[in-house]
Every structure is written in C-alpha cells, then in structure tokens.
Design goal:
15 helices; five-stranded mixed beta sheet; Rossmann fold; BirA Bifunctional Protein, domain 2; 21% strand; 37% helix; 388 residues; alpha+beta
Length: 388
C-alpha cells in the first residue's frame, strides 16, 4: 500500500500575529523598562491576570461592535471562555473578587490582549497594553494624575511631540441630546464617532445616516471627535496622538465609575489609561528615535584551543560576577575567524581570546570589534576597558 505524503507545513504566523526577533525585542523591553519606572514613581504596583476569562465576564461590557471582535470559544471542559479583549475588564473582575485591597488601589499591568481586528498599520490581533488605573477615588486629582503619568511616560520615551486630548462623556451625551437624537442611540452614535481615527469623516457620516440620523443632526454632533468607543466610560475621557507617523492614538482612557458594579462587585469609582506598546514601538522605529545596541552581550569569549577551555570558562564567570554580560562560543572546534564573524553579526563589541601565551601570563587578549584593535590585558584591565 502506498502511503500518501502529507503536504508541506506552511511555516507562517497567523494574520495579525507577529514574531519579535532580538533587535525588536530590545526596543520592546526598553519601552517596558522605562514605562515601569514611570508607573512605579507614581506609586502604582504591578498586577497580572490570566489570558483566558469566562465569557460572561467579558460579554456585555464593551458594546456590540467590540463584542464582534472577541475570541470566544468553548474549552475542553465545555466552558464558555474568551481571550481578554483589554486589561480593564479583567482588572475590574479582580477588584470585585478581592474586596479587601487597600483603597484607593493603584495598579499597572503590562500584558497582551486579543481582538479579531481588520489588521492594518498600528492595529494587530495580538497586542500589548500597558495600563495604569486608580480605583476608589472620585477626586479630579486622580484623573489629573493619570494625565501626568501619560505625559511623563511619553517624555521618558523621548517622543519629540504628542498631543493629549481631553473630553467628557457627560458633555458628549449633552451634545447628542441637544442635537435631538433619542437617548437609546447615544452609545451607538459615540461608537461611530470613535471610528474617525480609522475611517474618513464621510464614511462615519454615512454610518450615522444608516443608523437613522439626518444630516442636520450629524452636523450638530461632529465637533467633539474624542469619543472613546467603549461603553463603560462615564466621565472624563482622554487619548494621546502623535503627528508622525499617522498611526492613530497611542494612549486612551478615562473614568469608568460603574464597571465594577456591573460585574457584581463593589460600587467603586475608577479612572485610568492604556498605553499601546505596539504603536509606541512602531513610532520609535519609524522615527528612529533610539540607537540601541543590537545585543546586550558585551563580550564574546572565543575558544582558541580546546586545551584552554577551563581558563576561558573561569574568565567568563569572573566577568559575569562583575556584572558584565558574557557569551562563551559553544564549539571549541570552530576556527577563530568564524567566531569573530559570529560576534560581528550579533553586534558584540568585544571578543576575548585566551591562547597559550595569555594562559602563561595570566592575561587575555581583548579585540575591539568596531576598531579592530587588540590589547593584551589583565582581567582588571579588561573590566575597565569593557565598562568604559
């Protein structure tokens, strides 16, 4: 019997999902490091939640348009579950579950969320959100603190220019009411207005007409273009935009005083924002804002001769104990020129070599990969040269 050969597996990522190779990860990790530093200087503490939630936790919190983008399914236990759509609803579920937390409670959270988006520049199906929230305070000082975090975060990321927009849901509802639009359509109208960063004004106007609005009513509501399309916002709302590149908002948030209560938890006020890590990284790359090293490895210890492996390993360990990042080339039979080429490809700034002469004198040869210069140094001299 002739066996049927299987088709060759298509080795590619799903649409809207991405791999991040080391150079891109260096940018992402540095963004996260700087953001965490800002968050923690304001007194926010880190929280993490599961990627999967019960579907009933997620559904009915965002609005009809958002719910169409959720990844909802049954697991092996026949439970209705879903991948988190954002970090706000899971955070509200935490606050409802752990009611003894000190109030006000200030948390930050940096984790991926998932949406079945129509993918485009700056819009992905798996993306990272960086959230900061304050629960338990109705004071405008809390909203102002969130705005301060946004400003300091983007300043720490060296953004040359950005604009923080502030509006109010109460003002939007009043404008909609004064335009003669029935109350039941208010949230639907706001969701349409919120699409102005993704669609043209004409397309949004057409969508509003399809919802039954006349041109006269549309004209009356088109001044306030900061809407924040999610249903749970109840007060001040804010987002941040950059002029270049044209990528939409890089932060968005506001006050959501009823969400905890809708989840069956305590009736606590809350305010916060999300900072979109993926769009932030896209801006940094496109504007070439940073000049990061290609690798965090400072020294490659080459293995010149199998006889001196022990000496090489000892030197590597001593350097690590002195907080130098060191990689030992893992094949003692590879020629030195190939090891040097490897260091050059990775962008490692120094290669350390121990041969017979170096071993006798208890020294090393250090090659500067940028200049090509070589020096024979003591271990202390090597440390000084690398750290300088």
């Amino acid at each position: 019997m002739k066996l049927q050969t299987s088709k060759r597996l298509a080795l590619k990522t799903l649409k809207g999902f991405r791999d991040f190779l080391p150079e891109k990860m260096a940018i992402r990790q540095e963004v996260i490091r700087r953001l965490k530093n800002v968050f923690e200087t304001y007194g926010f503490e880190e929280l993490q939640t599961p990627a999967l939630e019960y579907a009933e936790v997620l559904k009915g919190k965002y609005g009809e348009d958002a719910e169409k983008l959720m990844y909802l399914f049954k697991d092996q236990g026949d439970r209705e579950v879903g991948l988190r759509y954002d970090l706000t609803v899971p955070f509200a579920r935490v606050m409802a579950s752990y009611q003894d937390l000190p109030k006000p409670f200030k948390r930050y959270q940096i984790q991926p969320a998932y949406r079945a988006e129509n993918t485009q520049k700056g819009r992905y199906r798996e993306f990272y959100q960086c959230d900061v929230d304050i629960v338990g305070s109705t004071s405008p000082l809390s909203d102002a603190e969130i705005l301060g975090v946004i400003n300091d975060a983007l300043t720490s990321l060296e953004f040359p220019s950005f604009k923080i927009k502030v509006n109010s849901r109460q003002v939007l509802f009043t404008i909609i009411e004064n335009a003669g639009i029935e109350k039941g359509l208010a949230l639907s109208v706001i969701r349409s207005i919120d699409k102005l960063d993704k669609k043209s004004k004409e397309e949004v106007e057409q969508e509003l007409k399809e919802k039954g609005l006349s041109q006269e009513k549309i004209s009356k509501i088109f001044d306030p273009t900061l809407a924040r399309g999610l249903d749970y916002y109840t007060g001040p709302i804010f987002e941040t935009q950059v002029e270049e590149p044209k990528i939409g908002s890089v932060t968005g948030g506001g006050r959501y005083n009823q969400l905890l209560k809708t989840l069956g938890g305590p009736d606590l006020p809350a305010t916060g924002t999300t900072i979109g890590l993926d769009r932030i990284c896209d801006v940094i790359e496109e504007l070439n804002l940073w000049n990061l090293p290609k690798t965090k490895v400072q020294v490659l210890v080459a293995v010149l001769d199998p006889k001196f492996i022990n000496e090489s390993l000892k030197v590597a360990q001593t350097l690590r104990e002195r907080f130098v990042t060191v990689e030992v080339y893992p094949d003692e039979n590879t020629k030195l020129d190939k090891q040097l080429k490897y260091a050059d490809q990775k962008g490692v700034p120094f290669v350390l070599i121990i041969g017979e002469d170096e071993a006798k004198e208890n020294k090393v040869t250090l090659k500067n990969m940028e200049t090509g210069e070589q020096e024979t140094l003591t271990l202390e001299g090597t440390l000084n040269r690398v750290k300088s």
